[in-house]
Specification:
Strand content: under 5%
Number of helices: 9
Number of strands: 0
Distance between the termini: 48 Å
Number of domains: 1
Helix content: over 70%
Length: 196
Amino acid sequence: MGSFGPVHPFMVWNLYLAAIPALLALVLFRRAQRFNVTWGLGFVAWLLFLPNAPYVLTDVVHMLDDLHASTSNRHSYEVLITYAVLFGCGLCSYVLSLQLFRRFLHRVAPPQVILPALLALHGLCVVAMYLGRFMRLNSWDAVFDPGAVLQSVLRVPRPTTVVVLAAMFLVVGVGACITAATAQKVFAKLRRLIVR
């Protein structure tokens, strides 16, 4: 299957995977919630798929290749816009998922647990993004090939890897904060327009 302009098949697949955690969060973290085995399995699925949302940011490696292969300024702009949309969609899914989870935590957990839980979750997502991009693991490998996941995780604590993870933690964190702040402003303006 080939590309359609600057849109590649992997982009469609990665967007599909990025949407899954947001959809699961919308179901799992509703106000009235019954905790049972089904909810628990859904939560595990949400945890496994959550890193797919910010993972699209690692597709920057493909963007650089596409820009290098670009034959005109117009094509370069198309590539930049296409990847900006991809990155924006991934970040929106990530932020929505985390915001819904944060609200859920406010209902069920002590306040002092919320920030550490969100930071730990963000850190785990960054490690999973690293495993996906550099070790080529997928979310479902945690279920179908846990040995490979464990082996890869044990190889992570190297000095260069720790630097890459710290950079990813910051970049994704800043991107998520900017996305959340932008979304809040957009929704506030929309609310004011609707109320008028």
